[in-house]
Input
Amino acid sequence: MNTNQFTVTSGKGFRLSGTSPDFTNGKEKGAEVDMMVEENIREMARLQDILYAHNKYGILIILQAMDAAGKDSTIKHIMSGFNPQGINVSSFKAPSAEEVDHDYLWRSHQHLPSRGNIGIFNRSYYEDVIVVKVHNLLAAQNIPEELNKDSVWQERYRQINDFERYMVENGIIVIKFFLHISKEEQCKRLLERLDNPDKNWKFSAADLHERENWDSYQENYEEMIRGTSTEHAPWHIIPANKKWFSRLLISEIIKEHMAKLPIRYPELTEADKKAIESYRSLLCGKGK
Output
C-alpha cells in the first residue's frame, strides 16, 4: 500500500475534509487484511529486536485523536508483538501540580524512549495546543501574563517543531498519527460503551461535554496539523471509522519507518570471534 497519501510533510493548505474517515483504499475487512496486519506485526517485532540490540536509535510513536477513535485498541492490537522489555506506554491526562510548575514539554521529555527502545504516547504534548486552546486553559498553566497572548499558539507550534527536530537530531525517530473519526462513528462507539457492560467503565460524562466542542476540536486539530507537519516529523492522517483498516495502515507505516533505519545486530570483534571456541569448550566442560 502506498502510505505517502496519508502523510503530511507540509501543512500548507491542509484540510481534514481532504481525508474521509471511511476511506479503506479499496480494501475490505476479512482474512486477507488480518493476515497482512499479522505479517506487519511479526516484521515490527523482528525489527524491534535489532533496534534493541543496535542500541543507537529510539522511536517515539504519538497517537492523537478525539475520544473513542481507537487509540487504546491500536496500542493493544498493533503493539502486541513488541517485546515489553523494550517498550514503554505513557498516557497524558490533566497535568499534576508539579507538572504545571514546569514548562508544558517537561513531562513529555521525561518519558522519551531511551536508545534501543520504543515509546508510545497515548495523547502527548499536543494536548497543550488542543485541549488547552479549546477550553481556554492557558492561564491555568501558570505562565507569565505577558506570554498569554494570541500569538502563543503559533509560538508553541514552532517550539514543538524545534523539540521534534531536537529528538530526530539525537536519534529519536518521531512517528505521529492522527486517528480521524467522524462524529457519527464516535456517537456509535460511545453508545456501545453505554450498552455493553464490559465497556461501561470506559464511558465518562466528560465525553459528552467534549463532544459538544466537536467543531472547535476539528478546527484546532486542523490548525495544529498545518502548523506541525514537517519533513523530520510528518503527521500521518489515519481514516479511523474502520478499525481494521486503521490497524493495517498504522502497522504498515510503523514497519516502513523501522525498516528505513540503518540498524543491525552488533558485530563481534576479531578477539571475540577467537574467544568463541574457548567459551564453547568451557560450556561443554572441556576446559576443566
